[in-house]
Amino acid sequence: MNKRIMISLLSCGILIVCICFLPFFFPGPYHLHVLILTMMNIILASSLRLINLSGQLSLAHGGMMTIGAYTSTLLVMKLGFSSWLALLMAGFFPAVIACLVGFPFVRLKGIYFAIVTIFLGEMIVLTAGQWRSLTGGSSGIFNIPRPNPLVIPGIVNITFSSKVDFYYLAFVLMLISLLILYAVENSRIGLTLRGIQQTDSLAESVGINTAGFKVLAFTIGCFFPGLIGGFYSQYISAINPDTFGFLFTIYLLVYMTVGGAERFIGPILGAFILTIFPEVTRPLKAFVPFFFAAVLMVVIFFMPEGIAGLPERLHKAIRKLLEKKTNHA
Amino acid sequence: MLEIEGLTKFFGGLAALSGVDMRVKPGDILGLIGPNGAGKTTLFNLVTGFLRPTKGRVIFEGKDITGKKPHSIAAKAIVRTFQATNIFPDFTVLQNIVLSCHLVPKIGLLETVFHTPSSRRKDEDILQRSQAILELVGLDTMADVAALNLAHGHKRILGIAIALAAEPKLLLLDEPLSGMNAEEVSETMRLIDRLWQSGITILLIEHNMRAAMSLCQRIVVLNFGRKIAEGSPEEIKGNNEVIQAYLGAGEYAP
User: Of A117, A18, A22, A128, which is closest to residue A67 (Cα–Cα)?
Assistant: First the structure.
């Protein structure tokens, strides 16, 4: 057991170092952009999975990102907040909204919960499009200022004038987010959420406030899309209501499912592969939705535990094969 | 300890339970019997908050708990088991119990996320309690087995162990012996008896008459949502109305 932990810690370390040096191999702005998108998608799909742990599917991620993006933008541009504080608020504000609507929402189960979250997301997007005095209507807001420079005199001076700076910011955000999500999942909260997913009436009967825990998962799970929404608006320096539409949310669901919703690594793998792959085959970009649908079908039919479940399945299959052979011999 | 006054539940126009009065005293072991559809499980659901009564009150240790949420009723130490969905199938046996030790000792949310020393101590505590419970019910050798893979009888015992993890004063067992073979039945009966001896008050739904009669001091009989009899096992055996409820009345019935 200890050996396994050592190996996984070591491989995590190597991976982190590799990601740190990636910009030296792919210095072009396009490559960096794709990598930044990948890291964003990894956080988004992983936070979607946290909500999924409690047996609920949220499709409000696009809406939560929209709230985050506008929160951060308006706080900086209208109220003169520091961009870093605004970024944090971009996470907290959607979380507060999720907590408030959570209690009525979690009375619904399964597909019905998913449906009300779709409506929530769409409502947010529509509001952003219609509230012209605040959000600039459907044309959105331009010239959003860059993040405030990080200066430690003589040592660090990050001005966020190039994509590389945003690459490292995204990387730090990803590391922190994944650490938090991992810690939550491997705490008693994670155990409780998974118990609720399996049999929520039984969990309730031993004194677990199942509604409270579902809202907790929803709240934490909505913090991260808000954060990423804020980050994205500062990175692209423009935001409009259609940036994170419903299709975007569905893509996140595809990342999670294809990667495997049962394991922590699942959404990370799914988001990585499905963000990078369409970019590699750029000429066929128009076919991306078709490609995603095909991948999703293949995964659902042939790998019910997603890509992350593949090694275990292969291992079992090989062992079975070997057993058969020894039986014959 | 538990007082039920005029408890009534309508499902649409159908009275699943109508005007049932009942008292459970501390240290009781009380059987609840009746033909299928008599309203036994409905009564459990009403007492533990899974259903809201149409009329009537449930009073536990002097406090009105009618219509409270199931988890807060569990926190008052009334814990029930289920007939069907009675385990967390994807967890190991030990995890089932560890999760169910939710009420004591309380661990804060931030404590558990940050793995503070205090949470680790409490985790250790929970682990010990869980192992003690598994030893008590005799599942300690199967601690690391996935609950899904247990034999039926063991699954049912795990269901009781899960309820025990919530430290009940009043334990409501919903057909704990159903689907068990003779050996498992006598083993589980011994377990229930031990729990009762250790001071847990028990309310028991059971279709196995012999078991119910030998375990319980007092028996309440429900039929079509009404209480038709209450008394010692001997009194119930001789009660005409009870015999009619089970066998039907008519020319050929005894």
Answer: A128
Contact B139, B158 (CB under 8 A): yes
**Phi–psi pair at A173, nearest 5 degrees:** -60, -45
User: Token pair 């049912």 is at which residue?
Assistant: B156
Contacts of B132 (CB under 8 A, 6+ apart): none
User: pTM value?
Assistant: 0.90
**Alpha-carbon gap, residue A107 to B51, rounded angstroms:** 14
Cβ pair B58, B66 in contact under 8 A: yes
Residue A198 touches chain B, beta carbons under 8 Å: yes
Would you say residue A213 has pLDDT above 80? yes
In whole angstroms, what is the distance from residue A119 CA to residue A110 CA?
15
Q: Encode pLDDT of A71-84 as tens digits.
A: 999 999 989 888 89
State the count of interchain CB pairs (< 8 A) between A and B: 86
Helix (H) or strand (E) holding B80: strand B78-80
Asked if A54 contacts A108 with a C-beta cutoff of 8 angstroms, the reply is: no
B118 contacts in chain A (CB < 8 Å):
none
A209 close to B (CB below 8 A)? yes
Separation in Å, CA of A50 to nearest CA in chain B: 14
User: Is the Cβ of A201 closer than 8 Å to some Cβ of chain B?
Assistant: yes
The CA distance from B128 to the nearest CA of chain A, in Å, is 16
Q: Which of A189, A202, A209 sits opposite B86 (nearest CB)?
A: A202
Burial call A87-100: b when 16+ CB within 10 Å, e when fewer: bbbbbebbbebbbe
- Could you count the other beta carbons within 10 Å of the beta carbon of residue A109? 12
Neighbours of B23 (CB within 10 A): 15
Phi, psi (degrees; rounded to nearest 5) at A190? -60, -45
Residue B31 tokens read as 């059987």
- What tokens appear for A59 in the block? 């499709």
pLDDT, position A159: 80
Identify residue A20 by its one-letter amino acid code.
C
Question: Which is nearest to B82 in space by CA: B115, B40, B113?
Answer: B40
pLDDT the model gives residue B226: 87
Phi first, then psi: give them for residue B9, nearest 5 degrees: -140, 125
